[in-house]
Write a structure and sequence with these properties.
The protein is an alpha+beta fold. Helices cover 52% and strands 15% of the residues. It has a four-stranded antiparallel β-sheet. A hairpin with a 2-residue loop joins strand 1 and strand 2. Helix 4 crosses helix 5.
């Protein structure tokens, strides 16, 4: 609704400039020069362009206020919920977001379940490197997860991935948590 109000205000300004194009000339160019006057061509083009812009802004304001994105009411149909959406793109994004939220909740739960097991299993040496990578890989395999061990300048980082795909079509699992010799952190 706020956008519709802004569009109506823009339309009002456009109609004002269409009625008084010399004001538009002064605001745009006239203030730069002493005793500057707009040409007849400038006045005609400004009147026409401002009037067309004002009409277009009013049309868009009406669309947003009464039936566009976020406006209007959905129509009834035979769907299971009894309503049809007026914006299929927004509905698609909402469904995708809902699936992503569900997958994130499953991953968070899987992290809570697996993190203590990995923290108990992992052994770190004096250089902050994993001393028992085979044990971590075996644990991951038995839990349906995967482990990646990456060397860094200050030690190694263990990435534990779950069985659920990172994104549609991906063969990599979703990252559940990271581990260093300091501790483990679940992904949000």
């Amino acid at each position: 609704m706020l956008l519709a109000i802004i569009l109506v205000l823009g339309a009002a300004w456009s109609f004002f400039i269409a009625a008084r194009p010399e004001v538009g000339f002064f605001l745009e160019e006239g203030w730069k020069f002493r005793d500057a006057e707009p040409s007849d061509l400038y006045l005609g083009v400004t009147r026409f362009g401002s009037a067309v812009l004002g009409i277009a802004l009013l049309v868009f304001a009406a669309i947003f206020a009464f039936g566009g994105p976020g406006g209007g009411t959905p129509e009834s149909d035979d769907s299971p919920t009894g309503t049809a959406t007026s914006d299929p793109l927004a509905e698609g994004f909402a469904q995708a977001r809902e699936k992503e939220d569900e997958a994130a909740a499953r991953s968070k739960e899987e992290c809570r379940r697996l993190k203590p097991k990995f923290e108990q299993t992992v052994k770190w040496n004096a250089q902050d490197k994993v001393a028992n990578p085979d044990a971590l890989h075996a644990l991951a395999g038995s839990e349906g997860a995967s482990v990646e061990i990456e060397s860094r300048a200050n030690g190694e980082v263990v990435t534990v991935r779950g069985s659920e795909a990172e994104y549609a079509g991906s063969s990599r699992g979703r990252v559940l948590f990271f581990m260093t010799s300091v501790g483990a952190t679940c992904m949000p």
